[in-house]
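Much of what follows relies on a compact textual record of a protein's fold. A record is reproduced here so that you can trace the correspondence yourselves:

. . .
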Amino acid sequence: MTKPLQVTGIGHALVDIIASCEEALLEEFSLAKGTMRLTSPEEAAALYDKMGPAVETSGGSAANTCAGIASLGGRAGFMGKVGHDQFARVFAHDIRSIGVVFSDGEAKSETPTGRCLILVTPDGERTMNTNLGAAAEFADADLDRAAIEASQVLYLEGYLFDPVEARAAFHTAADLARAAGTKVAFTLSDPFCVDRHREGFRSFIRDRVDIVFANERELLSLFPGSTFEEACAEIKTECSMAAITRSEKGAVIIEGERAIAVPAVPIEKLVDATGAGDLYAAGFLFGLASGSDLETCGRLGSLAASEVIVHVGPRPRRPLVEAARAHGLI
């Protein structure tokens, strides 16, 4: 019997505040370009004061992936925790309006909804400064067990691995998924996350994960000192499938002894890399849940990523289903 949901994601429920900036602003705040860091409310306020005109949009890595799946015409759900403020209402409206089933674990404290300040330099790279707020309070009690059991794939965001209670919820969710015949997918999210939780990530992947998503930097952080080829050989021993993105070099999909190289979709200009990995996962998982072969899954991933990096913001501006049909992928 077909499950009602193709993919359910669990991750940070955030509102993204995105602004263009020059390299000098990164230097002023000692920010490593292209990475994510956690900030205090005070740090976030100081940085916000220096940012130029900004675009506000609902975000969060796994939420972006679920939005991408819905844009492809797929059936997706999302779990994340918000506060009792206007940003919480904005987030819930945005994600539900595009057709994603949102299980909102509303914070019982007065902790505000999380937000991410994203600085986009002229080369299109994004540097993220995140104050997690209520998003970091996700726990077992916020799990929608029925949604997990009703999904073909459970997609877990590595960014949410840091809080102890959220990490425990990941273990519970993965165990529920496996008992229900639901595949477990996990994204490494950022080298920052891998460096903090390398052994925890590897143990979690070995014990509970079927599909790993990572970019090249994240994969090399998971296996420090390895070449790309050596790291690919390592990851295939720890999970059933891995999809590794390499920016303009495309992606490599690994399943057992198979390694499938899928080229990137050419674009005229990189405007904002925010959401590229999230949308790659969206295309790939949509294809997988729809029964496509792995090469088609990879092509859907590359296409979805190419659609989001040519404008500011982490979600597609035109329905991805239109782009996929134009390329003969669905």
User: Anything to note?
Assistant: The chain has a mean pLDDT of 94. DSSP finds twelve helices and 14 strands in the chain. The first strand starts at residue 5 and ends at 10.
